[in-house]
Amino acid sequence: MQTLKNLLTQIQEVGDLKDLETLRLQVLGKKGVLTQEFSALKKLEGKEKTQKAQELNTFKEAFVRVHASKKKELQDLELEAKLRAQAIDPTLANSTLGSSLGHPLSYTKDRIITYFTQQGFKLHVGTLVEEERYNFDMLNMPGYHPARDMQDTFYFKDHKLLRTHTSPTQIHAMQTQKPPIKMIGVGPTFRRDYDTTHTPMFSQVEGLVVDHAQKVHFGHLKQVLEDFLHDFFGGVKVRWRSSFFPFTEPSAEVDISCVFCAQEGCKVCKHTGWLEVLGAGCVHPAVFKHAGLENVSGYAFGLGIERLTMLTCGINDLRSLFETDLRLLEGF
Ligand code: DAH
């Protein structure tokens, strides 16, 4: 019985939950002291047995009670220590996050918007859910045009879709403003695409200039875009290649000399020394007709914000720009 009494003192001195459990097993476990004492009862008889059994039960009750309160005390201490270790002091100054330029995509977008609005272009945002005719038909892309395929475009019911480019902002501008018009349409666009250089959502900038007949020509377009590219990329060479877009005639694609290898040849420019950066052209007469304009001339251009960001930040997997990993974003 003396050993049992000692156990009650011992339990008070236990310092953590693991030791407390060891002690509990030493007493109440299958081979525990108390368990053995209880089974030894069968060797006793009569009054002696009753008395011993009472003593053991009283001790068991005491042990269970002391154990429970010790356990609670240790659990509280453990929780307190854990909370103290995790405590955040919201008044502390943050030493790791310095001032920032923001996300590379927002930074690029803001730079482009600032540039063109300073040149007198009015900013349009347009709507992301577009009518099919604004996204395609009125831009001279009739029903059989491959871009209208379900594979490429996110369609809704009732001839509505998620705009696949910012070019519909051209039509809205021409329908709501009188020439001279000078606008950029900026914002998200959507296509069913996903690989290292394509994501289902991406952003474009559309430019449109419309004035009375013969006032605007390809030479103006060339000047405006070359000025922009020199401002944006610094001392690069600019190359114009004739191309095709349904909504412009003539149409061109514009390349800059590779910003990664100075035209020595590298993986990014596929050893050509040139990087394609935008599409442009003079507004097709059919587009003016659909927008209800007569005796006007104009040019348009379109560029991808992600593409320009990848080129300025040296990123080869576009998807990394959409992961909110601060360590990666801090690297730009
Ligand atoms: N809408 C075209 C696209 O998504 C980009 C574009 C090319 C816009 C030429 C234009 C243009 O206005 O003239 O790929």
Topology readout:
Layout: H1 2-13, H2 17-28, H3 33-40, H4 46-86, H5 104-118, E1 122-124, E2 129-131, H6 132-135, E3 160-162, H7 168-176, E4 181-190, E5 201-212, H8 218-233, E6 238-245, E7 248-257, E8 274-283, H9 285-291, E9 296-304, H10 305-313, H11 326-330
Parallel strand pairs: 1-4
Antiparallel strand pairs: 2-3, 4-5, 5-9, 6-7, 7-8, 8-9
Helix pairs in contact: 1-4, 5-10, 7-9
The chain binds 3,4-dihydroxyphenylalanine.
Tell me about this structure.
This protein has two domains: 2-85; 104-329, BirA Bifunctional Protein, domain 2 (2-Layer Sandwich). Helices cover 42% and strands 20% of the residues. The protein is built from eleven helices and nine strands. It has helices at residues 2-13, 17-28, 33-40, 46-86, 104-118, 132-135, 168-176, 218-233, 285-291, 305-313, 326-330; strands at 122-124, 129-131, 160-162, 181-190, 201-212, 238-245, 248-257, 274-283, 296-304. The two termini are 74 Å apart. 27% of the residues are buried. 3,4-dihydroxyphenylalanine binds at residues 165, 167, 206, 245, 248, 279-281, 300-302. Pfam families: Phe_tRNA-synt_N, tRNA-synt_2d. It is found in: Cytoplasm.
